[in-house]
Amino acid sequence: MYKLILITGASRGIGAATALLAASQGYNVIINYKSQKDKAIQLKKQILENGGKAWAIQADVSCPDQVIHMFNEIDSLGILTALVNNAGVVDLQSSFVDVSPDRLQRIFNTNVIGAMLCAQQAIRRMSTRHGGNGGSIINVSSSSVITGSPNVYVDYASSKGALDVFTKGLAKEVAQEGIRVNAVRPGFISTEIHADTGNTDRFNNADKIIPLGRCGSSEEIAEAILWLLSEKASYCVGSFLNLTGGL
């Protein structure tokens, strides 16, 4: 069965792990990146060397014109069957009262509107109502929607909360059009994005905070994403997998 997957923000962390796992399971992989071209090209090379097919496409998902251009380019590569909305941004640890309007706009433009723009384009290609063959969309949310992340990044948590509402509503809207929409909520995962918060010591006490006694890995999140994309999850619609080590 032909499978073509787009993973946004795939040059590092969860996105990169998902790309590698998807390729190993027979997907042709589109690696979207915003600025880390070298990492995206290296990931593409790794997939090709392992016998898979991959392309790296630059696009800032918060920019509508760039999203449209990316999907037009994808049309020349094949029929899209899966989308993983993984691209996301965070900022320095802060109390909400000190968060600037520019920061709010940047976080919501990428984490929420970017995912919506990509989902919209994917639906126009996947939906049976639009002549497509169906497909699956996975949104990468966060366990911060449960805690609210006070004094860390309430704005980021709020953006992921909006993404969850979008996941639930969209899932119900397109289920009868052959598209399954679900989400994963990673907890404390060891990825590079946490350096963007400015708190490199955040996970030092993970063994005391997390019931399982450790942080999670990008590969563990990738496994959950690929399960949700698979036929094994064929009755899973509008659902959320909490991957938090027990938090």
TrEMBL record:
Keywords assigned: Oxidoreductase
Keyword rRNA processing: no
Alphabetical list of Gene3D superfamilies matching this protein: NAD(P)-binding Rossmann-like Domain
InterPro entries linked to this entry: NAD(P)-bd_dom_sf, Sc_DH/Rdtase_CS, SDR_fam
SUPFAM superfamilies, alphabetized: NAD(P)-binding Rossmann-fold domains
Superkingdom to which the source organism belongs: Bacteria
Similarity comment: family membership: Belongs to the short-chain dehydrogenases/reductases (SDR) family.
Protein name: SDR family oxidoreductase
Organism of provenance: Zooshikella harenae
